[in-house]
Amino acid sequence: MLRTHTCGELRISDVQKVVTICGWVQRIRNLGGMTFIDIRDRYGVTQVVIDEKSSNELHSIVEQLGREFVVQVRGEVVERTSKNPKNPTGEVELRTSNITILNQSELPPFTIEDDTDGGDELRMRYRYLDLRRNPVKNALMLRHTMAQEVRRYLCNKGFLEVETPFLIKSTPEGARDFVVPSRLHHGQFYALPQSPQTFKQLLMVAGFDRYFQLVRCFRDEDLRADRQPEFTQIDCEMSFVERDDILDVFEGMARHLFHTVKGVEFDAPFRRMTYHEAMSLYGTDKPDLRFGMSFKDIGAQLKGKGFSVVDNAEYVGGICARGCASYTRKQLDELTDFVKRPQVGASGLVYIRYNDDGTLKSSVDKFYSADDLMLVAKVFEAKPGDLMLILAGKRNKTLPALSELRLEMGNRLGLRPKNQFAPLWVVDFPLLEWDEELQRFFAMHHPFTSPHPDDIPLFQSNPAAIRANAYDMVINGVEVGGGSIRISNRELQQTMFNTLGFSDDEAEKQFGFLLNAFRYGAPPHGGIAFGFDRLCSLFGGSDSIRDYIAFPKNNAGRDVMIDSPSSISQQQLDELNIIIKE
Amino acid sequence: MLRTHTCGELRISDVQKVVTICGWVQRIRNLGGMTFIDIRDRYGVTQVVIDEKSSNELHSIVEQLGREFVVQVRGEVVERTSKNPKNPTGEVELRTSNITILNQSELPPFTIEDDTDGGDELRMRYRYLDLRRNPVKNALMLRHTMAQEVRRYLCNKGFLEVETPFLIKSTPEGARDFVVPSRLHHGQFYALPQSPQTFKQLLMVAGFDRYFQLVRCFRDEDLRADRQPEFTQIDCEMSFVERDDILDVFEGMARHLFHTVKGVEFDAPFRRMTYHEAMSLYGTDKPDLRFGMSFKDIGAQLKGKGFSVVDNAEYVGGICARGCASYTRKQLDELTDFVKRPQVGASGLVYIRYNDDGTLKSSVDKFYSADDLMLVAKVFEAKPGDLMLILAGKRNKTLPALSELRLEMGNRLGLRPKNQFAPLWVVDFPLLEWDEELQRFFAMHHPFTSPHPDDIPLFQSNPAAIRANAYDMVINGVEVGGGSIRISNRELQQTMFNTLGFSDDEAEKQFGFLLNAFRYGAPPHGGIAFGFDRLCSLFGGSDSIRDYIAFPKNNAGRDVMIDSPSSISQQQLDELNIIIKE
Questions:
Q1: How far apart, in Å, are the Cα atoms of A288 and each of A335, A409, A512, B19?
Q2: CATH topology of domain B12-103
């Protein structure tokens, strides 16, 4: 090794030792003839001091140094006169007479500091420099720790890590596949997996009993902020289980991660909520339960008083923001603007102030008496000082809009602290979603999800009403994982494919291998997959998954550092037998 | 859980417990009214017994059962009268009055036994059934254990597991890339990584200091037996190291694996051998050191006696097979045929028998006297009873041929037992290989490998003579890992690219991001990558890596189970803007 110690290692007990460290020049200060250099590596920062009486040779080396030069420094550990308690190595410094420049550095395009002056695009282009910054480095170290702890937990539970293939087969169901032209098989393509779903089910058919994998998955979607074309899943499957067995094991995994990585404990079991309850109370299937402010349906109280917006609405509901009665006109206008944004989509906002003096004041006083408003306040269990915010309209538009408003109020009231965690399970999702445009059902989870056993007869009478035996783990309003008990019966799987509009032939062509496998003794099984990038960012307290990916792509799916995608040679195209359309 | 115990769990101490197990029907035997059913799961086999006095209902269920049916069995654990000491559960059986059929099975296309009647192609097509067989299941469990132990060792050594991207950029150097057409960027392509080489080097530039990853890699090569288009590497890189630091750390990893997985210990340090020594002594850069039989150059002893084959040969060398003087004419003819096979390529074989009576007898007695032969025997340190086998010809043809002959003799003499392991390091590889056809140099390892520091001046005078600072770990004649100290200096990297025939422009276009990164303080660094599939098969004592891959492709790169690659829809082609050539 070119060093005896790292830059994070030296302590007061090392004083008088002669050591060698290597690292990057973080900072150089010249104070009255003495030169102090902070040397940084992954492990920390150590201060090096060069005496004014040092050799000319040493001084001339020091004069060449600039930020981010790579150096090897040999010297004696001495106690500092002015200690730095914020730095673990801050009680000592390295008095050196020997510095070797291992490599030079041009001036970096942005400062390598916790708060950098570099913009997003620049930092992406020089990702290897951005990765030197503590926040990014720490994000990836957190990810490393989480990966190891996931494995530790699952291995202890008897899960086997099995690698599934990346060059698989394109299937039309689900998102768009990335495909890989085959050179050896003219006109044919592999596809990159959107998830190892069918393979993990085959592993259950194979009797592997408990499987997991931290695995890259791919989706060729039109990108939006914070979506990556490649992402990592914690992918798991178990045999001979019922729903609650899976919830127990993976609630245990979440607890293990919170305990080991964050030192956070949860006394109570994770709350379980049906999809229906989540939609009614929070307008979303991934409610943020760090705060309450659940929805109240107040149609009964407000309808029939001549306010046509309300009278004609399918749904009238609202939230009660405690202590916000004093909101100014300007603040209320902001909220109105907020709900009218196209992303939220409400047509307007009704408010009722419960003034400190006990009176009620609303934006629709001309339709409602004080008594009317008091009935509404009762539903909200509002108290003087509270503010009620109400939306009305189509149910499937208004619930999500009200959910956005609730989150906005949560933000404004500081009710969503990053270091507080509110996990829950959402269960009993609908099995199917009707697509109006295509006039067909789609699987809400995927076509392998089993229906609730009680609901199987509904395939004939009312498919839309079938509940799935599916579940999501939601933390702080983020869906971190989701899964289901799978279909393990060939006939039921065929019924499902038929309900999704597959002919028997199509089902056979796409998923014949799975249907075939079900002929030979498929065990009851189910599983779950966690979005690992997002889970890491949640644990790290960040809204962006990009910081938790070493080399992310930008929102256009480009890696701007290596400049990819890029053109390939004519020879490559020829070998693949493909032509690019003009 | 649908079970209280697995099929591998019940012991004599569980007698009288009422338990539930789930699994597959392995075997049904009817003995005088009693029915015995072996139920199998991942963990083992448990015998279930159905009394002749059981209910009609139970008997009628049992009558329906066939091999590979999935059942749930509830019953009382009882001590067996006739115990089976070979089975860990063999002291007990489950006396049941309650069997539930969880799923049926058609008759499998081959028997699910350690020795199956299914052929390769059939087992690949029904891989999920093949995976139920102990040898294949155990291979993948071994792989699981090895993966976890690799991580445990490297994490303890401070390595961070960092995931690198799969959608990267095509580069012309090295093997052929699999490419992925971009839908969002017309006419552009991602490539799948042949290895994360440049990314791990960028992680070193980023200061990550110690990196590893178990990572899938891809090569679109013309397939040959036991090559897979996707394979897994243990990929590692370290900063501030010299060659021997890396050898120490990864020799440690190999020892850790041998210790924890195989219970094998090595007292002495792994032998280190230069490439030149390996080629001279064993005719290969991956010698199998489970046995000796090293080459002797006997040109000096045999030349000039009128035997033109030898006199005109660039190289004359051989091996001494102890105790083989009694080989029959037929055996010697077999060996001659062996070396003349096109894959071996020798033109003939000379032998010298050292008879038990002390006389020498050769196939070329007409050219050599007994004294001549005795001089040769001296070089071989041969004794009565030994057989000397000699090849002559071009050095670069004869050495590999002699290597094949040596391995063949090792096999014939039982000197290559699967449970014996002989690891070594091969070092000081040539940096460059001259390609006669293309009239240019190629990097023997890859273009990022640093030259031996002493040899840098040879870039001007004699590039072919430059030694690389590279190393391979070889075990039992298999190259399990290889790596190098990397170039971390921009100018040297540019020199290397130029030597490989890249113009500055081409180097910039392909590897500009790396050359750029070297501007900003690249630390000295180096690394290694192990072929994980092969390492597992070596530990498992198999010659085939396929058994150690859950869902392998066949020799034509096809997954015959899912039938991939396959055609994709016109819509997909249109979205990707590509046309398939007729």
A1: 19, 12, 40, 42
A2: OB fold (Dihydrolipoamide Acetyltransferase, E2P) (2.40.50)
How many Å apart are CA A257 and CA A251, to the nearest integer?
Answer: 10
CB proximity list for A498: less than 8 A, separation 6 or greater:
A504, A507
Nearest Cβ partner for A245 among B1, B72, B563: B1
- Rounded to the nearest 10 degrees, what angle do helices B395-412 and B329-340 cross at? 140
Measured in angstroms, the CA of B314 and the nearest CA of chain A are apart by 40
Query: At the topology level of CATH, where does A291-416 sit?
Result: Gyrase A; domain 2 (3.30.1360)
Distance from CA of A48 to the nearest CA of B (A): 18
Determine whether the interchain pair B230/A167 forms a contact, defined as Cβ–Cβ distance below 8 Å: yes
* CA-CA-CA-CA dihedral for A20, A21, A25, A27, to nearest 10: -90
Beta strands in A104-229 (DSSP E): 160-161, 179-181, 189-191, 210-218
Which of A140, A557, A569 comes nearest B172 by C-beta? A569
Burial class of residue A65, CB neighbours in 10 A (0-12, 13-18, 19+): middle
The span from the CA of B511 to the CA of B494, in Å, is 10
The Cα of B244 is separated from the nearest Cα of chain A by a number of Å equal to 9
Min Cα distance B11 → chain A (Å) is 19
Q: Which residues are CB-neighbours of B188 under 8 A, at least 6 positions away?
A: A565, A566, A567, B181, B182
**Chain B contact set for A132 (CB, 8 A):** 206-207
Q: Which residues of A touch B228 (CB under 8 A)?
A: none
pTM above 0.90, yes or no: yes
**What residue spans define the domains of chain A?**
12-103, 138-272+424-548, 291-416
Helix (H) / strand (E) element for B558: namely none
Is-contact A32 A118, C-beta < 8 A? no
Task: Give the pLDDT of residue A171.
Answer: 82
- The distance from CA B526 to its chain's CA centroid, rounded to whole angstroms, is 23
Task: Tell me the two tokens of residue A339.
Answer: 């709900």
Where b means 16+ CB within 10 Å and e means fewer, B289-322 reads bbbebbbbebbebbeeeebebbeebebbbbbbbb
The answer to whether ipTM exceeds 0.90 is yes
Q: Provide CATH code, domain A138-272+424-548.
A: 3.30.930.10
Q: What is the DSSP letter of B564?
A: B
Partner-chain contact B207 A578, CB within 8 Å: no
Average pLDDT of chain A to the nearest whole number: 95
Chain B neighbors of A43, CB-CB under 8 A: 209
For A188-239, what is each residue's pLDDT tens digit? 999 999 999 999 999 999 999 999 999 999 999 887 777 899 999 999 999 9
pLDDT value of residue A255: 98
Question: Which residues of chain B are under the pLDDT cut of 70?
Answer: none
**pLDDT at B545 (0 to 100):** 92
Is B563:A190 a contact under the CB 8 Å cutoff? no
| Amino acid code (one letter) for A122 | L
Residue A47 β-bridge partners:
A38
The DSSP output letter for B546 is G
Tokens of B406: 């040596």
Q: What is the pLDDT of residue B222?
A: 84
Instruction: Please report which confidence band the pLDDT of residue A537 belongs to, taking 50, 70 and 90 as the band edges.
Output: very high
